[in-house]
Amino acid sequence: MNNHLKHLTLGLAMLGVSAGVSASDADDFPSKPLQLLVAAGAGGGTDNFARVVRPMLEEALGGARSTVINLPAASGALAHQRTANGAADGHTLDFASTTFVTSLAAGQNPVGLDQVTPLARMQSDVMALFVNPERFEDFDAFMAYAEEHPGEINVGGTHTASPDHVAFLALRDASGIDMNFIPYDSTGNATANVLGGNIDATTTSLSPLLSYIDAGQMAPILVFSDERLEDYPDVPTTVENGWDLTDGNDRAIFVHASTPDAIVEKLETALKEVYDSEEYQSYAERVNLTYREGWMSSDEYRQRLENNFELYSRLLQDD
Amino acid sequence: MLEHFIGGLAVVMQPLNLLLLTSAVFIGFIGGALPGISGVILVVILLPVTYGMEPTTAFMVLTAIYGATVFSGLITAILYRAPGTPEAVMTAFDGYPMTQRGEAGKALGIGVLSSAIGGLVGTVALIIFTPMLASMALRFSSPEYFALAVLGLTVVASLGGRLIFGLIGAALGLFIATIGIDPLTGTSRYTFGNLNLAEGVGLIPVIVGLFAVSEVMKRTLDHESHQPLKKVKIKIFDLPILRQIGVTLSRSSLIGVIIGILPGIGASTAAMVSYSETVRWSKHPEKFGKGAPEGIAAPESANNAAAMGALVPLFALGIPGSGTTAVILGAFIMHGLQPGPMFMVSSSDLIYAVFAGLFIVNFMILLFSKPFIALFTKLLNVPYSALGPLIIMCCVVGTYSVRNSMFDVWLMLGFGVLGYLLEKINFPLVSIILGLVLGPIAESELRRALSMSQGDVSIFLSRPISASLLAVAALLLAVTLIAPLIKRARRKTAAA
């Protein structure tokens, strides 16, 4: 009885604290240096993203200080874990890619969508199916070949349960094409195998392969998008084939799920300011991430993550 | 092409560029010499600094750092058996015994010269053959990588010491390599639900533990007396030695370049394979591991050649051949450049300036390494009661910094104890590293190859490169196993 009372009072007191002080919390925020965790190794796309955003975010938050810490182990699961288990005060930000949700669906990431809150999505690199144009002229030729040679088409991409892999699974599931996935260590190795004619195609995001497209050595024959891309008007989309797939390699920022709303809002506003800045946009253009609107607000992105989680869980289970 | 190269040299020779290049070499020296601080980390740390530079200057600086780190890993490997970079681990096997014999200066001299020669061979290959070599590298796919790994693994039979230990060591290395999330199916293997093990056991904790930590333990616990080094005199150009290691240098540089160019594997594997081949072809394989000069020349020329070779697919195809080149690829993109098939054409000025820079860097290594190494050899006069803890501290900090993981530090210390115990029974530690480096390649490429062929094993024999590599492996294995039998039979007939 006594214990119950104690808990009740404690609970009430905490409620009072979180409700009463949160407004001024947000005014004081950030009250100490921020930790920007990167759920990927140094030097990759997500790491570059975090390191570019860092000084702009510091400025947008009125001269805050921050440090970047790479936690690549377990597909970034350690970074998610540290975010979800740390203090819910918004000082620990988790910079993560679509791998967050794909590794969750594969059972490799113990941090669920209920344990973190997305602040915003800032990038979405469009997924596409790429082939060597000497081998397949277009998607129709690819389909025709696949029908004649069921089970013989090899599609490469990065490791199992990666964004590349789930995009492949989603396409195979929707289109019914009978093809195999071969997981490689990196996009580069998958690309090299398509260039060398060792495998037939690769599903991966658009921007890393632009130079091959320009050189005519690789061609996208299907993009995961609802509209045709301005630069590739002849390349059909998944949606026009009747497959509702708009996968991309998203890059987003997460905080602890119980972070006070006022702080989440403040961070989201600051990130929007960064996103809209000329400096950020010129970076996005430089790394070719302007094919699709990158920005997605906290609520919109949460919805997308939940939908993707459901789809990816089913696809990975069936595989 | 020659005029491009001379144009590049002119860019490099601008005073500011030359100054930056020199500083880059020194930064690389320091990073490479500290265990755990690798080229990857240095390039990442310095990347933001290069934003303010012209892209040409920026990439001269980044690639110079890269080249210098691969070189300077040998210093601590030879002097303290604490390889500064994973690429230098093979160098410790023969370099450290030479130091123990009081021949540190000779060992370092061989290392410096071999590195510079390997680096130059690699750079020349890079300059002349980039487009040609790149298309050759594309012919390599999973069956070929698997065959190459098998070829490397068969050398266990030629390594000195007891064969059974060699086999146990290689098996142990192969086993450690299976820990973590299997990249092909996503299944967790031997992780016991521990997230720290999901990514597998890193090469750095194992190497630093097995070699550096165990050595400090040995010298502290066993009160092993060691020859006090009065004065280490480094002689880089030593004709008799050069004559002795000439063949090794040419073969290893060539192996290094070829392996470096292959996009799937890096300079550590190159050092490993060339060391193995040197042992295999040597008339005195029993001398290796006890301070054979060829045992330094082979891995050092190969890893530097491979480091340059790894830039070939990066420049020609936009495909990185190793961890550090992957980071350099990211850096190109951050500077708004698109490495890829058109890169050689669209940015030829930049590329030739980078080539020229690397060319100069190899000479700088010859020139500046002596005074730099002198700093480290002075440390040898520090009493070991102070130096030992300092080495352990560097190991801890270096290992932690790779993945920001305290778990890796405990792992490293655990491997330190293991290494200490194994050396008590004269266990060849090299076999463990052999399994650990080649294991992931052998396993995943085997499975990848089989899924390419829908399970048909004939894929290994129907592709010419993989078939020949496997045939060579089988032949060499047969020769090393049968040769002693023939020798014994001959001795018997002679005696009878």
From TrEMBL, chain A:
Keyword Cell division: no
Family classification: Belongs to the UPF0065 (bug) family.
Extent of the signal sequence: 1-23
Keyword Protein transport: no
CDD domains noted in UniProt: PBP2_Bug_TTT
Protein's recorded name: Tripartite tricarboxylate transporter substrate binding protein
Keyword terms of this UniProt record: Signal
Automatic annotation (TrEMBL), chain B:
Domain of life: Bacteria
Transmembrane segments: 20-47, 59-80, 107-133, 145-177, 197-217, 253-275, 314-337, 349-369, 381-402, 409-442, 465-486
Keyword annotations from UniProtKB, A to Z: Membrane, Transmembrane, Transmembrane helix
DUF112 domain location: 18-434
Entry-linked InterPro entries: DUF112_TM
UniProt-recorded name of the protein: Tripartite tricarboxylate transporter permease
Provenance organism: Halomonas dongshanensis
